[in-house]
Amino acid sequence: MNAITVERRTAFRGFALTAALVSGLTLAACQTTPTGEFNNIDKAQGSSENISSLSAVIQRSPQDPEGYNVRGSAYGRGGQYQAALKDFNQAIQLNPNFYQAYSNRALIQRFLGNQEAALADYNRSIQINANYDAAYIGRGNLYRKAGRTQDAFNDFQKAIQLDTTDARAYHNRGLIYQSQGQHKFAIEDFSTAISLAPDAAEPYNGRGLSYLATGDEDNAFSDFNMAIKLDGKNAEAWANQALIYEKRGDKVRAAKSYREAIHLDPNYQPAKDGLSRTGSNAS
């Protein structure tokens, strides 16, 4: 797999949404950072066995930049960022116009905290291929992390105009619409993201928040439940489910779900606040 794409559950922290209040209760916001963008690469690709097989391919064709790009992606999926960086460097050295490798290296730079280097790589990828949607999406995430919301929106918009099939573009644009209170547009974008990545929990959680903000409690509850079904480790979804239970007066179930959210993320403040409201002794 050449491009490092889809962001999944752990990828949705760091972009603070404007606080949304429903009946005085704070929604648990869905957020985004780079973590998790390797999830469209099969998990096995980060295994030692797969790395070995990719290394064998490189040994047979040491001048083929594609081999280094693929192995770099596998290293990235396995959390071996320095090894991934080395492979992407080699791919680019062999092919200075390898725009996919620039975009992939940019993601590694983001993981390593080298934001300026990441931006330079995204810019170079786009300079080489102005129609490469993954680079716009990656750069949009970088802009969003830096608080450059309009620039982020423009990049997600560009990727969508290029007819991307990457769910992140719609999900992330939906988050921006949501942060601006434009929930109708947010719901449309989250729904498109769901159609493109039906196994991803985050668009359901995001859409549920916008449904709840517009007073559609039943659809919100359905979406939070689906998010939990798809990813039982999504603390935000558990806290949002608990919020619905709380709004319905079911403090026992609310407390149980808030506790599960805290178990998954002990520092998640909306869940801690919710549990204090519903009673920490509830069972």
UniProtKB/TrEMBL annotation:
The signal peptide, as residue positions, is: 1-28
SMART domains (alphabetical): TPR
Q: Which residues form a coiled coil?
A: none
> Which GO BP terms, alphabetically?
receptor-mediated virion attachment to host cell
Give an example GO cellular component term for this record: cell outer membrane
> GO molecular-function annotation terms?
transferase activity
- Fetch the InterPro entries from UniProt: TPR-like_helical_dom_sf, TPR_rpt, Ycf3
Q: Which Pfam families match?
A: TPR_1, TPR_11, TPR_8
Keywords, sorted A to Z: Repeat, Signal, TPR repeat, Transferase
The residue spans of each TPR repeat are 65-98, 133-166, 167-200, 201-234, 235-268
What is the official name of this protein in its record? GlcNAc transferase
